[in-house]
């Protein structure tokens, strides 16, 4: 567990009769993470979108996040520096 990050997320939802659109209701998901660099009890004030998981994974693996990604690291998620 010393070098482990666990991310738990849910599939995005649908709206009306569609599934997988681009509305906030369809892009915002349940999202949780647990790991050494995350302070216990951390609550995120930002909305987390499905695409943000990629940015968190990249940061955890010490990879650069491409500037053209829509993905972002939720503010306050990590307590340590990169």
Comma- or semicolon-separated keywords:
alpha+beta, two-stranded antiparallel sheet, two-stranded antiparallel ribbon, 4 strands, 82 residues, 16% helix
Task: Outline the structure in words.
By secondary structure, the protein is of the alpha+beta class. It has two helices and four strands; from the N terminus they run E-E-E-H-E-H. The strands form two sheets. Strands 1-4 form a two-stranded antiparallel sheet. A hairpin with a 2-residue loop joins strand 2 (14-15) and strand 3 (18-19).
**Mean of residue pLDDT values:** 82
| Helix content bin | 10-25%
Total count of strands: 4
Tell me the distance between the termini: 18 Å
Short description:
The protein has helices spanning 24-27, 52-60, and strands at 5-9, 14-15, 18-19, 31-35. It is an alpha+beta fold and 82 residues long. The mean pLDDT is 82.
Topology:
Blueprint: E1 5-9, E2 14-15, E3 18-19, H1 24-27, E4 31-35, H2 52-60
Antiparallel strand pairs: 1-4, 2-3
